[in-house]
Amino acid sequence: MRAMILAAGRGERLRPLTDKMPKSLVEVRGRSLLERHLDNVRAAGISTVVINLGWLGDQIVERIGSGNRYGLEIIYSQEGDDILETGGGIHKALPALGTDPFLVVNADIYTDVPLSAVRLDDAHLGHLVMVPKPEYRDHGDFDIDDGLIRNGDSAAYTFSGVAIYRPEFFAGCEAGRFPLAPMLREAADRGQLSGSLYEGLWADVGTPERLAALQ
């Protein structure tokens, strides 16, 4: 299995900190979010990681390099100034992710989700790790019903930003910019996504206030 870390975003909500650095290099307790994810991926037994690059991506390449010092092979998926959003970014990176299911992690989360325990069975196109809805959010993203991700009017859980997808999940998608969320909702309606709940350490490092709370 290979992994992808989504690190191309502008990090608008973390400005002005992200005016001069990509959000994935923001440090929490002395180590960048991106490097923490690389450590977790390696601990899960994954050796090849794709990182998509957009805003100030050259700083990521300078910091991470080939990945040798992290015990990993790093492949960069360049998006430049035309950031492709989550769905488009993954779709562009598919050739580097191979033909097997792959792990995807959002760079702007802080978590100790045990990645080696995240599993996708043969019957589904994707598996989402969910977390309890944070207090600052008005509503959740999905429910879990008998191991399946379901849409709901008052969803109890928030998508953690950790998932496994089959390449076939993106079959029929066209190259370019597009979000992942509508695809997830459609797949949930079709019963194609499994899900699990994680109730341990997790935070969306989305604002200066949340970052300060983590520190």
Looking at this protein, list some descriptive labels:
alpha/beta; Spore Coat Polysaccharide Biosynthesis Protein SpsA, Chain A; 215 residues; 7-stranded mixed β-sheet; 22% helix; two-stranded antiparallel ribbon
The CATH architecture classification is Alpha-Beta Complex
Main beta sheet: strand number and arrangement? Answer: 7 strands, mixed
CATH topology annotation:
Spore Coat Polysaccharide Biosynthesis Protein SpsA, Chain A
What's the β-strand tally? 13
Strand order of the largest sheet: 5-4-1-6-11-8-12
Number of helices: 5
Question: What topology does this entry show?
Answer:
Layout: E1 3-6, E2 27-28, E3 31-32, H1 33-43, E4 48-53, H2 57-64, E5 73-78, H3 85-97, E6 102-106, E7 109-111, E8 126-132, E9 143-145, E10 148-150, E11 157-165, H4 181-189, E12 193-197, E13 202-204, H5 208-214
Parallel strand pairs: 1-4, 1-6, 4-5, 8-12
Antiparallel strand pairs: 2-3, 6-11, 7-13, 8-11, 9-10
